[in-house]
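Chapter review: from sequence to fold.
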Amino acid sequence: MKDNYKKLIIGESIESLIEKKFLARANMFNYDVSLQSLKLGISGDYTVKSSDELYSNHSMLGKLMNAYEEIAKGTKTLIFNNGINTSRYVYDLFKKAGYNIRHLGQ
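The token string follows.
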């Protein structure tokens, strides 16, 4: 890095920003789901196709909706998706269910 940069500026820690009330402490939840259908590409990452097929299938979307309604219903919630296509499926699912939802992406 020293060949390209003269200084390294390190910002405040997340904990410090939470204490100063610039960030909120997050409540995070995860579920154990079968990821066996995911396939690795040549870059070592899961392929977009296998990710889209897994995360946008009816079963997985149903699990997401159940998790939301069990844990977060009525709260402001961020759902991080594996890609834009899946994000759009999630948007459609929640919109059809009558939830006030926004898709942030391209």
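Two observations follow directly from the output. The mean pLDDT is 89. The radius of gyration is 18 Å.
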